[in-house]
Structure prediction request, 178 residues.
Amino acid sequence: ASSATDSKELRAKLVLLGDSGVGKSCIVLRFVRGQFDPTSKVTVGASFLSQTLALEDSTIVKFEIWDTAGQERYAALAPLYYRGAAAAIVVYDITSPESFSKAQYWVKELQKHGSPGIVMVLVGNKADLHENRSVSLQDAKEYAEKNNMFFIETSAKTADNINQLFEEIAKRLPRPTE
Ligand code: GDP
Ligand code: MG
Prediction:
């Protein structure tokens, strides 16, 4: 039987990358605070938040989350945030094909310069705006498969799949060997 003393804590640096306006900050705030603020401010540079998640196997994952700004003028700073990251969430907006192209740019950058073995996740956010969808589920799925990424569509607004996103990342993190 498991008890509190059996639980293992895992710390994981996590970075969010993607075009400005795709909802990175809203995803983080939904996960950390359980809130959605439609008047939230544009991220300047990057912001840091941490949140723990308890898994079924009693592992406790402490995410150290770096939410980056998507603006071009900050692109040169991105390596500071993804360096040493155990996981990266690359976000696009399902209503914006440009943001999907930008996501592919970030995936390539992570493949070239990210930590070996980094857990990469592709997220199509704003799934609540499905009536204005312009990136197909099929295209995103195929792209993610080809690039060895977990893929999920989320809505920070309705909270759809937000916890699942972080749980899936937690499950994929390498466990320290005993
Ligand atoms: P960031 O630049 O990637 O951090 O994007 P923000 O988190 O600042 O969000 C940009 C805009 O998209 C804001 O106006 C949010 O209210 C809106 N937004 C974020 N997530 C969602 C979502 O899941 N659905 C909808 N409809 N709007 C969202
Ligand atoms: Mg932001």
